[in-house]
Amino acid sequence: MVIAAKNLTLAYGKNIIVKNLSLAVGPTTVTALIGPSGCGKSTLLRTFNRMNDFVPSFRMVSGNIHYRDLDVYSNQVDPVFVRRRIGMVFQKPNPFPSSIHKNITWGPRINGFQGDLDHLVESSLKRAALWDEVKDKLNSSGLALSGGQQQRLCIARAIAMDPDVILMDEPCSALDPASTARIEDLITELKDRFSMLIVTHNMQQASRISQNTAFMLNGELVEYGTTSQIFNAPAQRLTEDYIMGRFG
Amino acid sequence: MPIFPLKLTPPIATNSLKAAARFKTRLSETAVIRFLQTCAWISILTTIAIVVILGFESLVFFKGVPLLDFLTGRDWSPLIEPRSFGVLPLIAGTLVVSLGACAIAVPLGLASAIYLAEYASPKTRSLIKPTIELLAGIPSVVFGYFAITTVTPVLQFIFPTTEIFNAASASIVLGFMVLPMITSLCDDAIRATPRSLREGGFALAATKAEVSLDILLPASMSAIMASVILGFSRAIGETMAVALAAGSTPNLSLNPLTSMQTMTGYIVQVAMGDVPHGTIEYQSIFAVAGTLFVMTLSLNLLSQVVVRRFARQWE
Ligand SMILES: Nc1ncnc2c1ncn2[C@@H]1O[C@H](COP(=O)(O)OP(=O)(O)OP(=O)(O)O)[C@@H](O)[C@H]1O
Ligand SMILES: [Mg+2]
């Protein structure tokens, strides 16, 4: 297993958000995380790479998370190292207000990358299916791109770190259908190389791009299985109701 | 007994509905608006009056001294024969003192701002911020006095050639006078950067220092530049502390350990001295003030241009 959460209970202050949740994600798979708004998907996702460390009220009440054989929340583990192996793409594209080139090279550079930066830029942008559109303006600002291009730049930036896992929190929710389709293609192409965990509200998207699906409700994991099983033969009534759009 | 003893709106007969709905001149409201308008205009008129008087009196001066001689002359001795009205030594004094102040206030202010915005806990912050603002409330003359009685002796101890009145001590106290403004504006600028930017940095395995220095600082650079320009403009216009500390020897020099006269320093000296009104040396303070006004106005406009560029950035 690449990521394994065990009996996880998470809270902001006194509010328990995620309850006794266990979930394991294997190598080179796309796992979709679905569930109604406010059920704790983002909270869970951000816990995997310790992004919630920046939320002062966040508490891990119980349980543990392992990335391969590393205990992610152990005192001996540097969160910066965890984030080097587990990258993240956010809901709203958030390129740095600097050149496309710097957007890609900054992360690897501060983490001791020694190789050829131009080559890194080219290969990352190619893998993010953005190269052809920006190869002539690598020195212009990342903010000057369209929303869909910005999101692909953020994916390219995450890929450039050569992570093991990429977490994506509703990566297409701010995008138009054409850009969404491009990013879905991209995710499918990247899955041979990375494990990906993707939060989405779009059932079609989950069924198109993921191999496994986890359904969460009120902070609990209701059902977890292969995507075809969850969508075609859900074991739980709640899962079926949610997928059929009867609530949420 | 009526249930509602107070009737807010009297009942309206259908045929008088139009009459009731018609606009009424509300006397009290008109009076309030007029009063507020007048107050706003007072400051506008004051500004215009000052500019007009400055321009007019300067014109009188420039009838006696050609503008070009004034702006390019390297010798300023308005009170002693042979008179000479070359403003460059005053501008040089002003720039040396103000640049020196910025050399202190900008690094210190920026560092404090980064600390306040990114590192300080809310509790530390609530302690440091008011203290820095307290610094801004200390009267200028106290800073000047402090320069003479404390800063200069220390400078003389380190550099024995330091004169009693010297530009360096003026720069140092002026730096601390400008510091609160620069700190506070830079702090605002850094805190105005979106959270998503920080998260983007942290998600790329950056440390807090890397995010602050490599991402947030460049991202708020235009607002930081604007605050530096404003601080510089404030330093140029500052009078009392500088007049006390830097002395009144016009000096076209870059040595901060010697006495220098700034533009403001000269204006105080003449305005408070016994120079008879109407003489050319009295008129000269208007020319100097006008030059100073043009400088600070340009700097303030420049900072606004920079700020406007910044405002567009996070839309
Ligand atoms: N920083 C925070 N501080 C306090 N409470 C928070 C914080 N972030 C989220 N919450 C609360 O935690 C709960 C779960 O939020 P979370 O963002 O994980 O939901 P989600 O499943 O991602 O929802 P959505 O689909 O709308 O993104 C919500 O009730 C939210 O109000
Ligand atoms: Mg969410």
SSE layout and pairing:
The complex is a heterodimer of chains A (248) and B (315).
Chain A: E1 3-12, E2 15-25, E3 30-34, H1 41-48, E4 58-67, E5 70-71, H2 79-85, E6 86-89, H3 100-110, H4 117-127, H5 131-134, H6 147-160, E7 165-169, H7 177-190, E8 195-199, H8 203-209, E9 212-217, E10 220-226, H9 227-232, H10 237-243
Parallel strand pairs in A: 3-8, 3-9, 6-7, 7-8
Antiparallel strand pairs in A: 1-2, 1-4, 4-5, 9-10
Chain B: H1 17-21, H2 27-64, H3 67-72, E1 76-77, E2 84-85, H4 88-119, H5 122-136, H6 140-158, H7 167-191, H8 195-203, H9 208-219, H10 221-237, H11 240-246, H12 263-272, H13 280-313
Helix pairs in contact in B: 2-13, 4-7, 4-10, 5-7, 6-7, 6-11, 7-10, 7-11, 8-9, 10-13, 11-12, 12-13
Name the largest protein-protein interface in this structure.
Answer: A-B, 25 and 19 residues
Helix content of chain B: over 70%
Helix content of chain A: 25-40%
Shape of chain A: globular
Ends distance of chain B:
60 Å
Which structural class do the helices and strands of chain A define? alpha/beta
Query: Based on the structure given, which CATH architecture of chain A is correct?
Result: 3-Layer(aba) Sandwich
Sheet having the most strands of chain B: 2 strands, antiparallel
